[in-house]
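Notes from hallway chat w/ T.B., transcribed later so I don't forget. T.B. wanted the structure written out for a chain they're using in a teaching module, and asked if we could keep both sequence and structure tokens in one place. Agreed to drop them here.
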Amino acid sequence: MADNRQKRGGADRGLIAVSEPYEVAYWSKKFKITPAKLKTAVKKVGRSAKKVGAYIKLQQHKAADRARIAVSQPYEVSYWSKKFKVTPARLKAAVKAVGHSSKAVGAHLAKGKSTKKAKKSARKTAGKTTKKRAKRKAA
């Protein structure tokens, strides 16, 4: 139902009519978000301005949480991949394995690197031992 500009009572003030461009502009400016994000929020929680405001605050809090890796955001995947010096695919696999906590992902990736280093050094020492044996046999 279309919003009536003549009715300015309390009940109308508390609701967001996404079908009205002027209301979308007003609420987008008030919440400091894009109209698309406002419409998404209204779809998620309903037309109540209080509920939409609470939802938006929660979303902004989640985005501000620096210890959480959001693999759905390309800029975060890029940032954390560079920080941990891994490929985006390895980062996503680590997040899938241990969760979104950056501390847990860092520990998981560090554990993986230490085992790789141990394997690599074992190969090197095994190769040196083989070479020494070959020299002894030749001599």
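Follow-up for T.B.: Helices lie at 10-13, 21-31, 35-45, 49-64, 74-84, 88-98, 102-138. Might be a good example for the class.
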